[in-house]
Write a structure and sequence with these properties.
- Chain C: It is a multi-pass membrane protein.
- Chain C: It comes from Shinella yambaruensis.
- Chain C: This is ABC transporter permease.
- The complex is a heterotrimer.
- Chain A is an all-alpha fold.
- Chain A contains 19 helices and three strands.
- In chain A, a hairpin with a 5-residue loop joins strand 2 and strand 3.
- In chain A, helix 3 runs antiparallel to helix 4, helix 15 crosses helix 16 and helix 16 packs antiparallel against helix 19.
- The two termini of chain A are about 35 Å apart.
- The N terminus of chain A is likely disordered.
- By secondary structure, chain B is α+β, with helices and mostly antiparallel strands.
- Helices cover about 25% and strands about 35% of the residues of chain B.
- A six-stranded mixed sheet of chain B has the order 6-7-8-3-9-10, sandwiched between helices. In chain B, strands 16-20-17-18-19 form a five-stranded antiparallel sheet. In chain B, strands 2-1-4-5 form a four-stranded antiparallel sheet, covered by helices on one side.
- Chain B is elongated.
- The N terminus of chain B is likely disordered.
- In chain C, helix 3 packs across helix 12 and helix 4 packs antiparallel against helix 9.
- Classes of the chains: A mainly alpha, B alpha+beta, C mainly alpha.
- Chains in contact: A-B, A-C, B-C.
């Protein structure tokens, strides 16, 4: 439809658009109705769970739920002042902790407050242990007798601050920042600043893997695209087959290959390339090698499908116009492969960011990526807030590159096999 | 389907017209837009007569295929009404219109045999078993494909596939058959053969056909009437001879056959003839719709209607210089310079043109009827 | 090799090097897949080559061990169930998305595809938390739902690609011949896109059958799948029975892959 007629009369245009909408509505709704079950299913089983999980990164229920009276008593207290709050606050805390002891919630509270300031857990638990020893009369001195810190405002300021329903604590920690006693945001101490390092490591490993797959994949895709149909089909099978094999099996294979007594070391020794066995397991090299192996098909396939579509005649034309071979390749052929390179590399980078199994099984402690830390916070530390904050970080990176992918490549261009 | 139509008739608020006189299809002020800004079909009013072969002819994007799709029920008009035998069908889905449709690429079901393809519409009309088999065989015989029922579409040639599509569209005896460039994929010889075949079947069955093509010779060969589409409008609706001899505007003149288009000025009319002045002052007698003094007038002159000046009865005689001569076998083609610096083309039988030499002046003559005065 | 006639000598050398390089990369790709097979039939419990003595003892171990067998059955059941859900929902969605008037196609596609690119740990933890609140952790239902969500994009993409080669005039032809939308779907569309749907189902099966992380979080001892059983085994002490399990998984993958290619070939014929 090239020679459509432009409407000059602006008055009828809105009517036309309305008429068009009216005429098209049943078709649109019918199409949407078909996709709706899958959309709802994905929202309920996929999007909503992830969203809910991410909110735990800012949720702060412990102080609010466990110390309601204390929170109320501290509401009127000036947390920035030099003095600890009045007797009422001590009484409220005592009442709240008595209740907490019965409900078995004191430990969780202590753990939560300990994130804010080391030592809080033992202070809370010490009060809980000595609940029976408190006597009538002024409470402040009795608290101070357990730990002199109770007399200073800092500790109370932490309780007051965390009475809020949301906290920036986990998110700040995930990027190595903290809120000091006065509420100002500062960098954490050098020895505690680990998370930016993990983030950088995750990006670095994903980048290394992407680079390695491109380096290995580009020439391979090129050769496959040039090979005669029969051989090319066979070569493609060799690219597709690993894609179908379980990621766990491929990782297992690398565990076996990389072991100190493994196949690679045996071969290297037999060939005399090394005189002693190399440490390959639990190394960055091993992790990146295994990940490169797993991701290689994702990079090769889009590049191959773009190369396949470049007409052969173009290189002939470039040569007949006088371009030397390398120049013809670099100036005529390579730029046209860019869409495939972009698609393959972005996909590999996105997927590499989220790796868990391979670093967990092949990598050492210094090769663990964000996913591994998220799992550890859930499984070992039961620290949901921290896990959610790190997940948020990982998700932001993944989604930004996914959006870039959608923009540059488009979801409808994804092909499988 | 049939009971449904009857009920609708009974309920209709207008008295039912006599079937023979009423048109098969009526488009009433039909508009179509895909994007809400541009109209693909601008304001269509068209009546298709019972039993006629009507061709919608036009360049791609002219709205002809969209019109056909609206009639078939695959597109909805944005505005306006479409009446099929007097019933409004804009909201009626295609499967309840009882219209046969032959698609550009045939749209044969590749997973079914030829017989299953042709028998497909019978399944949905409650015709089964021996009766269905008989109807299928009959339809295949009609398109001269007897005995190929067990083949798959992929095993047939393009021409055979085309015939299957035709058999499938008529096996259920629809009231109307629509065809969307059905011969576009065939080579020239086969195409000309199929043109005659389709016309034969149409006349044999007395069925109404609406045919879409961009091929003017196909339209001229097959049609009872031709609707020429451009820019979402019908430019002219008439029988092939009228369309060729008396185009009503410059688009039709240029689209159908070859034409010399020359600017001119309107002087006046007399005895049914129009008089015009060419650029160099030459006066010509012309025919055509009477035009007031418009500034964008031209005369159109077909190359084969220009003859050597043999002192016959033609109203117009001019002198021209022969710039070039091309031999085409049965004819010669002359490139001429006349009316000052205008170029025009003339086509003469080879024997007549033998004596004409490039570089010489030559006298040409043509009748006022062949010199059409047209506005844009 | 595969060079135009006008190639120069240095170009030929260059090309030879690239071709050799490509085959080395292919060897790198395919080699590790076949490491597990010989080790799974080696009598030695150590993973060393050359293999001195062959034996099926690790397979016997696998098939006689109740825990391994239980996990194999769990995997098959979960994969079959999630394949059914994903194939049904994904096919329906692809049919809708491929319609010309589909609203907000880009956004819907972005959401539909996202399970494919989402870090699986995030999916797993999210499901663990959400399903936990519904009492669906340590149930097969929870695992099946989560796996179906992960598999849906694979079905959507394959069925969409099947639909992209489907000529919509065929549906129009069906309608013009008197078949209603449902009849057209079952008589014309479905038979023609069936290879795409089956490919999508095979992929969905593979996605669920091979998935480790979500299963790690969502299953208890009773629903433990084969990959989870393997994963814990590798973490503790890698033993040759794991090689037998890995070989079986690989065999299933290769079988699915061969099946897929057969379907494609039939479709082309």
């Amino acid at each position: 439809m090239t020679q459509t007629l432009s409407l000059t009369s602006s008055a009828s245009a809105p009517n036309l658009r309305a008429a068009l909408r009216r005429a098209e509505r049943p078709g649109r709704l019918g199409a949407l109705a078909l996709a709706l079950p899958a959309l709802l299913f994905l929202i309920v089983t996929f999007a909503a769970p992830i969203g809910l999980f991410l909110t735990t990164a800012v949720r702060n229920p412990e102080v609010r739920d466990t110390l309601p009276q204390t929170a109320a008593a501290l509401a009127g207290w000036d947390g920035d002042g030099p003095a600890a709050p009045g007797e009422a606050a001590f009484a409220a805390l005592l009442a709240d902790l008595t209740r907490a002891k019965e409900d078995n919630t004191a430990a969780a509270l202590g753990k939560r407050l300990n994130y804010e300031s080391a030592g809080m857990r033992s202070r809370i638990m010490s009060v809980v242990r000595h609940l029976g020893n408190f006597k009538d009369g002024a409470l402040a001195p009795q608290f101070a007798a357990l730990d002199p810190v109770w007399a200073s405002p800092d500790l109370w300021a932490i309780i007051k601050r965390n009475a809020a329903p949301v906290t920036p604590y986990y998110l700040l920690t995930a990027v190595d920042l903290q809120q000091d006693a006065s509420g100002a945001i500062t960098r954490v101490a050098e020895d505690q600043a680990v998370f930016l390092g993990i983030l950088g490591r995750t990006l670095w490993i994903a980048g290394l893997v992407t680079g390695a797959t491109l380096l290995l994949g580009f020439p391979t895709a090129y050769v496959i695209s040039l090979a005669p149909a029969r051989i090319a089909g066979f070569m493609l099978l060799m690219v597709l087959l690993p894609l179908w094999t379980s990621l766990l099996v491929r990782t297992t294979a690398w565990v076996v290959l990389l072991q100190t007594d493994g196949v690679i070391n045996q071969v290297l020794l037999a060939l005399g390339l090394t005189t002693e066995k190399l440490q390959l397991m639990l190394t960055r090299f091993g992790t990146v090698t295994a990940m490169t192996h797993i991701q290689l098909p994702f990079t090769i396939l889009p590049i191959f499908s773009v190369m396949k579509s470049i007409p052969e005649g173009q290189m002939r034309a470039a040569r007949s116009l006088g371009a030397p071979p390398f120049f013809a390749f670099w100036r005529v052929y390579a730029p046209q492969t860019l869409p495939g390179v972009t698609a393959g590399c972005l996909m590999t980078f996105i997927l590499s960011l989220g790796y868990y199994i391979t670093p967990a099984l092949v990598g050492g402690p210094r090769d663990q990526m964000l996913s591994n830390f998220i799992a550890t916070y859930i499984n070992r530390d039961l620290n949901w807030g921290m896990a959610a904050a790190l997940a948020g970080l990982l998700l932001v990176m993944t989604l930004s590159i996914y959006l870039l992918f959608l923009r540059l490549v488009g979801a409808e261009r994804i092909k499988l096999g | 389907m049939n009971t449904m139509t009857l009920e609708r008739r009974r309920l209709g608020d207008e008295p039912s017209p006599t079937p023979a006189a009423s048109p098969m299809v009526v488009f009433e002020r039909v508009q179509k837009t895909y994007d809400g800004r541009t109209l693909v079909v601008e304001d269509l009013n068209l009546a298709v007569r019972r039993g006629e072969f009507l061709t919608m002819l036009g360049p791609s994007g002219s709205g002809k295929t969209t019109t056909l799709m609206m009639l078939g029920g695959f597109e909805q008009p944005t505005n306006g009404r479409i009446l099929l035998e007097g019933q409004a069908v804009e909201r009626l889905p295609p499967e309840r219109r009882d219209i046969g449709f032959v698609f550009q690429n045939y749209a044969l079901f590749p997973h079914m045999t030829v017989a299953d393809n042709v028998g497909f519409p019978l399944r949905y009309r409650g015709i089964r078993g021996a009766e269905a088999a008989r109807r299928v065989a009959e339809a295949l015989a009609m398109v001269r494909l007897d005995g190929l029922g067990e083949r798959r579409p992929a095993q047939l040639s393009g021409g055979q596939q085309q015939r299957v599509a035709l058999a499938r569209a008529m096996v259920f005896k629809p009231k109307l058959i629509l065809m969307d460039e059905p011969l576009g994929a065939l080579d020239k010889q086969l195409r000309e053969h199929m043109q005659i075949e389709i016309r034969r079947i149409q006349q044999q069955l007395g069925i109404t056909m609406v045919y879409v093509t961009h091929d003017q010779s196909e339209a001229l060969t097959m049609s009872d009437r031709i609707a020429v589409f451009n820019d979402g409008r019908i430019q002219q609706l008439s029988d092939p001879v009228t369309l060729y001899d008396r185009p009503e505007n410059r688009f039709v003149a240029g689209f159908i056959g070859d034409n010399n288009t020359l600017p001119c000025e309107f002087l006046g009319s007399e005895n049914g003839l129009a008089f015009v002045r060419m650029k160099d002052g030459t006066r010509l007698a012309a025919s055509g719709p009477a035009h007031p003094a418009r500034s964008d007038l031209t005369v159109s002159l077909r190359p084969e209607r220009l003859g050597l000046d043999d002192a016959g009865s033609a109203e117009n005689r001019i002198k021209a210089r022969v710039l070039d001569k091309t031999f085409l076998g049965d004819r010669v083609r002359l490139t001429l310079e006349a009316f000052g610096t205008e170029r025009l083309v003339a086509s003469l039988p080879a024997a007549e043109g033998a004596a004409v030499l490039p570089g010489r002046d030559v006298g040409m003559a043509f009748s006022a009827a062949d010199c059409r005065l047209l506005a844009r | 090799m595969w060079l135009p006639a006008y190639a120069t000598r240095s170009e030929r050398l260059c090309r030879l090097a690239v071709v050799l390089f490509a085959f080395a990369v292919l060897a790198f790709l395919i080699g590790p897949l076949f490491v597990v097979f010989p080790l799974s039939v080696s009598k030695d419990p150590f993973f060393t080559f050359p293999i001195r003595e062959y034996s099926w003892r690790w397979y016997a171990d696998f098939f006689q061990n109740a825990r391994w067998m239980h996990s194999l059955v769990n995997s098959l059941v979960a994969a079959a169930a999630s394949t059914l859900i994903a194939t049904f929902l994904g096919t329906l969605a692809a049919l809708g998305i491929s319609r010309p008037g589909f609203p907000a196609r880009k956004a819907v596609m972005a959401l539909m595809i996202s399970p494919m690119i989402m870090p699986v740990v995030i999916v797993a933890v999210g499901a663990y938390m959400f399903f936990g609140s519904l009492g669906l952790t340590n149930t097969r239902t929870g695992l099946v739902l989560a796996h179906a969500a992960l598999a849906i994009p694979f079905v959507v993409v394959t069925v969409l690609s099947a639909l992209s080669t489907y000529d919509s005039n065929l549906s129009r032809a069906g309608a013009s011949l008197g078949a209603g939308p449902v009849s057209v779907f079952f008589a014309v569309t479905l038979p023609l896109i069936l290879p795409g749907i089956v490919s999508g189902a095979l992929l969905a099966f593979a996605v669920s059958f091979d998935e480790v992380i979500v299963a790690l979080f969502l299953t208890g001892a009773d629903q433990r799948t084969l990959p989870v059983q393997m994963f814990s085994g590798i973490r503790d002490q890698i033993n040759p029975t794991i090689m037998a399990a890995a070989s079986l998984l690989t065999t299933v993958s290769i079988a699915l892959f061969v099946l897929l290619n057969l379907i494609r070939r039939v479709k082309r014929a």
